[in-house]
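Input sequence (414 aa), recorded before submission:
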Amino acid sequence: MIAVSMAVLQHATSIPLARALRPRSCHAVSAPSRKLSASSPSRATHVDPHVLLGMTEPELQQVAVDLGQQGYRGKQLHHLIYKRKIKDIQEFIQLPQAFRNNLQEAGWTVGRSPIYQTVTAADGTVKLLIKLEDNRLIETVGIPVEVEKGAMRLTACVSSQVGCPLKCSFCATGKGGFSRNLKRHEIVEQVLAIEEIFKHRVTNVVFMGMGEPMLNLKSVLEAHRCLNKDIQIGQRMITISSVGVPNTIKKLASHKLQSTLALSLHAPNQKLRESIVPSAKSYPLEAIMKDCKDYFLETSRRVSFEYALLAGVNDAVEHAVELAEMLHEWGRGHHVNLIPFNPIEGSEYKRPYNKAVQAFAAALESRKITVSVRQTRGLDASAACGQLRNEFQKSPLRIDSNPSQSESDIAVAC
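Predicted structure, token format:
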């Protein structure tokens, strides 16, 4: 979806971020293995067949009952998956061996995928490649920020698709093509993978990794519920980013989430936006701005506008003035995140000089637009969205494939 270097760290940090994510697939479910009772509030929720991760406590209780166990065993499953974060059913030693065996015989898995590659930047940013069950690779990024009193804020930048179909001109993910949507557990597991690497609780989640979240809104919302209710990350600590897909902002607003919508704008007028974001042709800027205004009115949550600064393309003071005028025309509740372009291999775009970035920001501030400039992170870890994956995978890995390069051998994309 949005290029990593242009990802917003809303709530998380004043730092741009790389895109990332992590999934895992599942098997077909046999009829008896998991029927939910009609009274279950989770009945309407899609459930990934035979994958425990992402399920609610009532759903896990139903799994236990379907396998002849007492309902409280489902509560134990919930604790083991979300609190203890155990990856393998046979490691659920608090459960009877017979129950563990029955789970496996029925085809159940926890739904955690292996980490295929890890790259750590000098600034502490860590990018992971996660190998899904179908041997596709996805990216997820952990961004640590030290806050007052020695505490750490840890942001997970997660992917929502394998690749991205929108092909924004500045984005490495689009250059790698599109394979499929991620399932809810494949999104959730990315957060758990970041926690495992850092040995620290994730405090913020941004859907700014590979893919366009609005094109996979069903799974994104299910993962959002799990992250909030089961993993207990506050809704206001979660940001859903989009380059703009018709009719989806209204749909998201109808759920009245307290999370932030980050709209990747990148231009102050329709003509320039179409040259940067090809999909903009089907979603005029005026329609996007109206939907963003309605989102604010519906949720009382301001919209954050992501603006990737591309040298000589959209970074002139005149562009800033035009942007300010457009935002004022559509009312209040706006915030602009300026993201200096994170260079990617083969791109015609350049990163603007700091002087140009500061002049752009000053022009917005002088016109009473709230603005922040993202400090670039992870430049030495292929941090731009899709960069690391593109180095390793153009098509699914062979079943027997293993990483052929050590971390020190990975080429730096900048």
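Checked by second reader. The first strand starts at residue 115 and ends at 120.
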